[in-house]
Amino acid sequence: MSDAVHPTTSPSGPPVKLPKEGFDPLVIGRRIRFFRLQRGLKLEQLAAAAGRAASGISAIENGHRSPTLAQLGAIASALGLPPRTLFDPNPPTERDALEIEWERVQRDPAYAARGLPQVKVTRTTPLAVLEALVGLSRELYRVREERVATPEEARRANAALRLQMRAEDDYFPELERAATELLNLTGREPGGPMNQGDLASMASKLGFELRFVDDLPQTTRSVLDTKRHRLYLPRQAEAVTGDHRSTVLQALASHVLGQGEPDDYMAFLRHRVEANYVAGAVLMPENAAVWMLGSAKAGRALSIEEFRDAFTVSYEMAAHRFVNLSTRHLGIRVHFAKVHSSGVIHKSYENDGSLFPTDPLGAIEGQFMCRYWSGRTVFEAVRPQERYAQYTDTPHGTYWATAHLKQTRDGVFSVSIGCRFDDAKWFAGADTRIRMRSDCPDPSCCQTPPADLAAEWAGSAWPAARPHSSVLAAMPTGAFPGVDLTDVYEFLERQPE
Predict the structure, then answer these.
(1) Coil, helix or strand for 193?
(2) Is the confidence at residue 290, as pLDDT, over 90?
(3) Alpha carbon distances (Å) from 112 to 105, 391, 493
(4) Distance CA 250, CA 272 (A)
(5) Closest by Cα among 19, 6, 31 to 86
(6) What is the distance between the terminal CA atoms of the chain, rounded to a whole angstrom?
(7) Is residue 295 part of a domain?
(8) What is the pLDDT of residue 12?
(9) Domain boundary, last residue among 409, 426, 448
(10) Which stretches of 122-206 are DSSP H helices?
(11) Residue 249: what pLDDT?
């Protein structure tokens, strides 16, 4: 038998190579059937000649059983063939190659996970039907890989999702209802901070037990085990922060919303946004939050800091929740941005006409915030614990914004909330005297160096860029992008009953 390595078709992607030390049961089976039919033998006749049971030969031909070398030798002898003929890793005909590929598609766990029916292909199945099935599976795989694996698709999906959120003013009644249902499980009155006991009660009512562990997979924040009804969380983070509320609520929200495996990057991002939205709406319930914000507006004292402290959440969560409620309940259109100290925008939203920089795909994330907007000037102006506010004059109007600094393991970020000049009067900090001028997106504003610096250094500087870590970078493929499922399954396997 030749030890050459031959390509064989994979339903999940490009051709793969058959290892020298093994053989493909599907191909072996098709080759046995091909030569049996070529010789006009019935299954029972071949079985009798090979000294085997007909059911065993059938299982081998259909690729359901991997034959031993002894069995293959007996079958080859019964067919009058040298054994190496059966070991050939190439399907005997083009139709056989298509049948094998379609069989592999249906055996892929991803096929069963989508609830698709098994389609049995027989000798009477028209070739055109078989070609259509295989061709469609190849195209779906290609599209899936294209959408999941490329940064371009990530940016495109994020831009499209932001437009959808803007169209609804980032307020979603169905998610508010889901949050209310979760909150009702605790039996507590909405309003005021939610504690860890409330979360444990909520999880228990949904049939889950909270377990804190030391060996949670590094690519995860939590793992929800729907077989044993447990939610695993990292013990180390609990010791540091004492607060797992957001992580627990996001996991429970994904379960309550019935989120399954995302089909593409758009679905992946939408699932994240929905789970984050519900978590924020549980920690900052709509009625209590709107009452507080309405009272603050009446007193012209809207403050993200006060909003944060009332519900003991992070500044960023309070800012997100304010964006959810401000337009629908307060009549205030706003913009939001999370910006790294390097100036790169990591998150953004606007429905007040702010013109954030965009790339050709319409994505804002990954672009540089104007140097003169509060999201950047705050880095030079204050210490993280202080409130900062400023007005920014632009060619399309004047905007007010307040910004806050946040220290993370990935560096320092600013989180800013702003609005048009006419709505600034409702906010604490509207009396700021800090005022900047921005002409972006005109390159002369801040995207090109000053003429004197350029004259001195142009052509003499060659910097090496630091790559930015972002959710919009290319993500690994798989059921849950960015998660090592082998680590997750091994983690679950070693947990005690």
Answers:
(1) coil
(2) yes
(3) 10, 56, 22
(4) 8
(5) 31
(6) 49
(7) no
(8) 37
(9) 448
(10) 127-149, 151-167, 173-184, 196-205
(11) 92
